[in-house]
Specification:
Strand order of the largest sheet: 5-6-7-3-8-9
Strand content: 15-25%
Structural class: alpha/beta
Largest sheet: 6 strands, mixed
Radius of gyration: 18 Å
CATH class of one domain: Alpha Beta
CATH topology of one domain: Rossmann fold
Order of helices and strands: EEEHEEHHHEHEHEEHHH
CATH architecture of one domain: 3-Layer(aba) Sandwich
Mean pLDDT: 84
Amino acid sequence: MSLIEAHGLTVQLGGATVLEGVDLALEPGEIVTIVGPNGSGKSTLLRALLGIQPLASGKVTRKPGLRLGYVPQKLHIDGGLPLPVRRFLSLPRRHSAAEAATALAQVGMSGMEERQMLGLSGGQLQRVLLARALLEQPDLLILDEPTQGLDQPGEAAFYELIEKVRIETGCAILMVSHDLHVVMSASDRVICLNGHVCCQGTPHVVSNAPEYRALFGLGTRGALALYQHDHDHDHDHDHSHDPDAGQPRTREADHV
């Protein structure tokens, strides 16, 4: 059965309808990415699926015993509070030193247990957040803009890590992202959201959908080229003649 399903999911905030009639299902082992413009309800949808955002109507059904791991969009750490990585990994539930070491090794952060959280770079912080989520041995890993604030090499490395985690653990991954080019190469399925599900399917299907083009224009054709390049393992492909290869990546902050 599906790991998690939403049927007619509707959310209202301050009397305004933010999400309406959302239907989706997440299957074991797949990577699904949610894209959409400002205020489209992407983060709200994740919170609703996690059960921390009340629904106006509809329902969310989880597979019995489903284990969830969550990497939030932002993390506030009190500057006056010493907090080493090892202690952070035991919040809110205590884990053994061996479990923490294993999780840090999974994300390429071995030996960082005594580093202070406030001293970590953006990329290191995201990896530690991922390690904490992996300590729950999740069936489904949910990430809200996991590469926000990272430079392009940092983003690429993090997405490669996500694929590695999926292969090693077999968990499904649901994430919000604004890097359309990378999304198309890193996802099995894309959900385009704008208060409702505009379209969804494989990267190829979504990038050619009129609803997607209406939101993001035609400047994402390079995304499909990247998707084909990565999945065909054709490392000799020359993007120098791709008119969209040099286009700026689309980014928006979801303020909902």
